[in-house]
Structure formats: C-alpha cells, structure tokens
What does this fold into?
Amino acid sequence: MSFRPSRSAHTVVSLILLFALVTPASAADRTQSSPLTPRQPSTPDSVADATHVPGELIVRFRPGMTRGARSNLLRAHGARVQEELSLSRATLVSLPRAANVRAVAARLTRQAGVLFAEPNYIYRTSATPDDPRLGDLWALDNGKDRDIDARSAWDITTGSSDVVVAVVDSGVDWNHPDLAPNIWANPGETLNGSDDDGNGFIDDVRGWDFVANDNDPMDRNGHGTHVAATIGAQGNNGAGITGVNWDVSLMPLRAANANGNLTELSIIESFAYACQKGAKVINASFGGHQNSVAIRSVIESCPHALFVVAAGNEALDVDPTGNRIYPCTYPLANIVCVAATGRNDRLADFSNYGDDRVDLAAPGVSILSATHRHVFLSDGFESGIGLWSTGKVSGRSWSATTEAAANGDRSATDSAGENYSNNSNTWIETAAPIALTGGDDCQLDYAFRIDLQQSHDWLVLEGSKNGGASWTVIDSGESGNLAWTGTFGFIEWSDFISLDGFDDVASFDLRFRLVSDGSGRRDGAWVDDVVLHCFTGTHGTDDFVRMAGTSMATPHVAGVAALMLADHPTASTSRLKAALLGGTDPVAALDGKVATGGRLNARGALLMLEDVAPVASRPMHKLQANSTLGRSTVPLKVFWDAATDAQPSSGIDEYQVQARTRVGGDWRSWQAVGRTGKLSITHQLAPGTHQFRVRARDAAGNPSNWKAGDPLALKDPQGGSAITFGRTWSTQSSSAFFDGSTRYSGQRLATARHTFSGSQVAWVASRGPNRGRAKVYIDGELAATVDLYSTSRKDRRVVFLEKWETSGTHTIKIKVIAPNPASSGKRVDLDAFLTLG
It folds into this structure.
C-alpha cells in the first residue's frame, strides 16, 4: 500500500492502493597443534553453489580436553579427525557421506568439552550487479546498515526464473526494459485465440486483467509496475536498477483500476488465478477495513502460497478490532503483514503497526523503482544545477547545496547558508524546454523542504508552454493553497500537471520560485529529486521514480521470499514465514510496533532456511506500556524468536511454553501456541520470581530442546519502605486499586522516589477527571511529563515505562506539578512501582 498524497487523490472505494506524498583472536598455541601438511583445497568446483563443504566440520575444543577424549567424543558422533588446524584446539573433522552436517554441528556444540562446531563454510567474492542506479537503492544496501542486506544475500543466490511471484495490483508494464525479461510466461498457453491450458482464460500468456476481463494486464496506474520492479527488476544487465531478485518470474494480475481501486471480486479472482497457476509468493500491496469472508476464504484455500500484504498507511495500531486492516491482519499462517521503515530505521510516520497483527517491517520510504510512464526529466542535483538556470527580480540566487537532501548529498536551495531576503522573487527553471509531445497523464514528482513565514512567504511551482513568455501556477500545496508555505522537513509530493493543461505540449518549462513579503525572513526552501514523467506507450533507459508507503515495503519482503525459494525450492510456506520472521534484524525502535520487533534482513532469512535441527530461542519478557493490571496481577509479555527447522517441507507446527515460580522448581505446562506466526504470550502474573522456557515442534513431530529464559523477579510493586515520599501523601483503600490501596497527593511538588535494581520499571496510577500531572525523572534526568487527566475513570494503568538492555541500579522519581486545565483536581496516584529484575 503506497502513500503518495496529492491533490488528485481519489475517494476510497472498497480496498484501495494509496499513493505517496510524499556495523583480535588470541594467537594460536602451537604446542597443542600437530605439524601442518599441505592438503587439497576444500572448495572444489563441485560445491561452487553450496553454502558449506559437504561432510566437513571445524570443531574447537575447550581447554583441558585430551586428545583421547576428543577422539572418543567425535567417534560417538560418527566423526573423525581429518587434520589439526593452526587455531589452538581446533580440528577439521570429516563425517559420513549421508550425515546432516548442520545437525551434527548442533549436537557437538551442546557437548561440555566443545567450544564450538560449525560447517566448513564457503565464502565467495561479493555478488554485485552492474546496474548503474544500484547506488540509489538505499533499501537494498547502504552504509548505515538500515537496509535488508541484499548485497550479502546475493552471495548466496540472486534468484531464479523458476520461482513465480504473483503481483496482484494495478497491472504491470510488461514492456518496461528492466521488467520485460522477468515477466512470467504461461507455459501452457499460446496466442491463438484458444484456452490451451483449460483454465477458463483465453490467451492468458502473461497473466490476466480482472478489471477489463481480458488477457492484457498492462498497468494504467503505475503502482503495480513500481511494486513489481522492487521484487524483480532484472539485475546485472548494465541498465537501470535491480530488484531484490535479479531473476524471477513476475505474474502480472490486474485487480486495481486506473484510480487504484480494487473490488472484492477482482481480488478473489486474482488470488485464485495465482494459486491455480502455481505462484508460491503473492504480493498484495493494498488493504481496507472491510472484513471480507470471501477474501479470507480464498487465502485459506491456498496454503502452498505465501501472501505478503501491506499493513496500510494510516499511522494506526491495527491490533484493536476496530482498527483492523484486511487482508493483512487475518490471523492466517500463510499471511505476512508488513509495516514500513525509513532511512533512520524507524517506523515510517505514515505506517500502520501492531505488536500482534503486524509481523515485521521493511524499507518503504523514498523507494526508487520502475514507472509505467516515460521520464522526460530526472534530477537529484548530485552534479549541481547544470540542467537549470537561475533568475531573480530581487533576493538571493538559487544554487546547489549540501545543507540538506532528501536522497544523496545535494539539493537546490534559494539562499544557501543564510536566510532569504525580504521581498524576494527568485527562481530556478529548466535550462531548456522539454518536448512533451505525445505525453499523456503527465506527472511531476519532487521532494521539498521549507522554512517559510506561514501565509506570508511561498514556494510556487510554475509551468510555461511558450518559452517562458508567460507562466501558469501548478496547483500544489495543501489546505486549499495553490503553493507551499510554513515549515516542515522533506516531503515527497506529486502533482498531475496534466490537470494544468501541460499534456502533449511541444515545449514545457518548469520553475520553482520563492516569493516573500517584507514582514520577516526564514531559512527558505530546498528542492530535490525532480522527476517529470508522462504516459507515452514507450520507454527510455531511466524510467524510474520514487514512492513511499507500506506498498513499497511489502515487495521487499515478497522479493526475499522469492530469493529463499530460489535457494530452497521445496521450502514450505510455514518454513518461509518462520525464516522471514526469525531472520529479521532487531531494531529497538520497532519493539512493540511489530511482532518480531525487527526489520527484514535478506541474508538472515536465507540462513534461517539452512537444514539445522529444530532449535527454539530463549524467551524474553517485558512489561507492557499502557496496559491495565489485574487487581493483584501484572500483565507480562513473554516473547521469543522464530525457531529453525530441519524438515524442508514441514515447518514449525507448534511452540510450547512452560513456567515455574522458582529456580529449580517444577516446570508446569503454561500454554501452547500452535500453527501460528505469533511468537508471544501475554499473561497476568502475581508478583514474585518466575522463569519461562520454550520448545518448538515441527509438523513431523520432531521437538527441539527446551530453551529457558533468564529468571525474572517481579518485585513488590508497592515498594514498601523502599519508596521515599516528599511532602504530603495519603493512603486510600479500595478494590479498584492494585492490591487494594494506593498512595496519592494533590500537593504541588510532592515527590515519590524509588531506588531499585532491575531492567524495567513501570509507574502504575489511575486516570480520571480530577487527576493532575507529574514529571518523571530517571536517574536524575527528566524522562517524561505524564498527564493523568481523562474524561472517565481508568484504574491500575501503566502510565510510564522505562527499559534498559541490562539490569542495573536505577532511581525513578515522580513530582506533582500543575494540573491539566481541563481537570477538576490535581490528584496524582502512586498505585505501584513495578520493577523487573
């Protein structure tokens, strides 16, 4: 689901595509090593496509293991020493021909005398495509590692044309030069006017148009083409960009009309067609709030396909029932729900989220991909302003600058390094007219940032079709304005200049003009990534634009799923999903926003598919912000990473969770989580000591070992004498409060201080019509100001939460301050300080 607001946005009908505006070993102990002798290279050509040398392990023993003990241990696992290595206590080990290398490595690693055991991995020179605009694809690879690590994933696989990905969208421009080689060809159909494969569709050689009901799924909107190229623009062809897959088969299925609207019927028919024709991955970059039983049913009826779906662009928590967006939040095992991140590795400000219903995030801001239009102008000002000329009546001249940029290092600005002048009238315009002859549905994309005096100074876009003799204002801006004013950071915007009369003109000039009055001066305007493109039916070599949205995040995930199938063609849907979720990069800013707390990592997902024995991860735990306590219990979230699985066709079928209330005590079965991607349980616990462990079981019945988490101490939430009170506090008893009582104060500057040892602390209080405000200090630093006013009474609420990576000694203090003017009182409650040790 893309997010590109513009004045041409259409009313949402049924499900809709939304458009965007917008990281030294010690020296070897030779006294413990045998003399080395030359041996044959362990990377023969016959294993050039493998990830490790068959039948070989590298094992390093712990100090104190004698040679006899080492040999006995290896022999017990069917292994023998091939040679001693220069790394002290390290040995190259050979296994029988039929041995599962990774499973033996896992078993050896668990032995007391073994430091580690791992396959003899194969490394390759980095696979880097020669596509000239690879450097513009920040989501695939960038220096700050906020990407999906595509470059390192390509060292394992670059994709396969045997993998079919269905793109259910507005169609795909199958003539685009960077897409044409990767468009799916129906193997059972030829263009002869007959239904050769007997599927009910005549001449469906490259998919189907379920809007016009014909065999031409050509894109009339641009959304589907952009999505498809992110999944699989041809890589290493010396032109344009590359998709996540260099090679793949993209199945175009047109379900959205030219306005981006989809009907339930077109979605159902597209999904059913994709499943019938064997697509293993189905990209669905759309959504809506209608809970369709039919759409859910068709997804359930296609368990062999992984549906990768956009979470939506309303900045909503979609976990609550009233906010759900479909089909993303259906709790189905073959759906992956995707949120969007930006260059800062944080959730995009437009992206929906949900700690339960949204699985992971992927890059979805300023994503460069293919357009169905022909690009007449594309300039990010990285080489200066050579394509432009400057002019002014008064004020400072425009120039290229490194002060700020939406992408890359440079943009164009009106007053580099200083404020603009009063009464400015200064501009930058295209140096030569652009012939738009034959151009239809012309669109202008640009990124801009402004700091202008609101409603006094303006950034105006203008176009001319007579060589600059006269100029027409291009209708842009917001809130009914024709131009831009105010202050905000870089936004990606689109204006359809066809509505201003500039389609099919022989000469078009464009300019960005800053005008100001005499009442004040600010920092000015910056313009970047200007792209002018029109539908012509033909293509050049640089027909690419930027878009933002969860629609742009979703195809990154679908693309990685296709890479995984290229490397493991028999992988089950459940195994694909578990590896996608388990291979994410943990990102602190995504904790509590998506179920995995992570952003897509292509190499991580591929490695999760390796044939290791079932392995579960250690469970972790956290208090929940904004949660409600029971009368004597605390809601605690227990969560863990996806398990890996040895069976290529089975996948993880169930997670079992056990708990105990003291270390060394008996474990009791707590809860099972079966056939689901949900890797967490939230449960109300009484204060005390607890410990949890998790085990995974695959569909063949094979269990993993139990993995226990660290013991946790949910300490006395009332704090007792450990809380120091300043000024007047009173006690009130009531069953509405946690453990039957609360402390409260309405005296300004009254304080409550608690010093504790732990990794998490929460303040529990009541909200209500007569509640006040308090400042919260952590270790002497102001952390938050909490307003407890609410139009209705809400007891036992976590109103503040702080977490640390490791346990330590900390102090929390709350101080009563002036209340919310709307409140009828200034009472502040201290119902509890919860701490986790």
